[in-house]
Amino acid sequence: MKWLLALLVPSLAAAEVKLDDAAQTITDAIAKIDLKLARFGETLSVETIAALDPSKPVDTKTLRANLAKQKLKVIDDRTYGNATVITIQAANGARARITVDQGGGAITLTARPANPTLPGKCVAIPDVKHPVYVNSSAINQSGDRGRGQTFWDYKTERIHDVDGDGIADAFVPVAKAKNACPEEVAFRVFVMRGACGHDLGVIGPGSFQFDAGTAAIDASGFRPFTMEAQKSKQGKRGIPEMTTTVRRFGVKAGKYKQLDSKSTTGVCHHCATWNCSAP
């Protein structure tokens, strides 16, 4: 869920606020925006939300009461594991999204929500899961080999706002094998309209850049994405080599297409090599 909680740019501020104060923060941010100058679909990061008590579940009761007091209407309300994502709409049409778990969160603002024409029919979103273990090993500065294992729990989730309407859209993991590593996982993108979505095709494989959710909407009416995938292998004399591939995607004729791809490979003495296995 941490990709949902990353602070995105550009931003209106760079401070931390308490969760209970998020409603006032949103109201203040909207007041700063000149709607005549705001671009359709532009998404700004407002502020980060301070960390909560890690021993307790996220309590949004006071937040919701404060949203009502500020006349901010909840139009989308979702829970993902320990994270809560609430999208609100102000009287002037501006929308904001609050994303939070025990570790804190972020507030983003779309002052002038866009409403582009969507391709195809509105269909049910596939519920896909791809859990995978990454088993890694590396040699440290002292020459000792260490080993570790991490768990990646990919599943259909509402991650980024693709069409600039202020509401997070669905990303469905696409893996060709049960033991596909994270750098091999792509995403099928669905722009949401209510409980169904419009299929915009596949982006990836790889991970999202830190500012993925605030990249400017392009001429297609949709947000472009840049995906980065890293893969390592044993090179000459057993020294690891790391290959980084960066792919850019944009919507053409109603579907995401790869615009370009660039790969670089270099020696990385203390980088890990890894393999993956399904649970």
Q: Any descriptors?
A:
single chain; 279 residues; mainly beta; TATA-Binding Protein; 2 domains; six-stranded mixed sheet; four-stranded antiparallel sheet; 17 strands; globular; disordered N terminus
What composes the largest sheet? 6 strands, mixed
- Give me the side-by-side strand order of the main sheet: 1-2-6-5-4-3
Mean pLDDT: 91
**C-alpha Rg (nearest Å):** 20 Å
Give the strand content. over 45%
Q: Kindly state the percentage of residues in helix.
A: under 10%
The run of helices and strands is HEHEHEEEEEEEEEEEEEEE
Shape: globular
**How many domains?**
2
Number of separate helices: 3
Count of distinct strands: 17
Given helix and strand content, the structural type is mainly beta
Low-confidence parts, pLDDT < 50 over ≥5 residues? 1-13
Termini distance? Answer: 19 Å
Would you spell out the secondary-structure blueprint of this structure?
Blueprint: H1 2-5, E1 16-17, H2 22-32, E2 43-49, H3 61-69, E3 73-80, E4 83-89, E5 95-101, E6 104-110, E7 129-139, E8 145-155, E9 157-158, E10 170-174, E11 186-193, E12 196-203, E13 207-208, E14 225-234, E15 240-252, E16 255-267, E17 273-277
Parallel strand pairs: 1-2
Antiparallel strand pairs: 2-6, 3-4, 4-5, 5-6, 7-8, 7-17, 9-10, 10-11, 11-12, 13-14, 14-15, 15-16
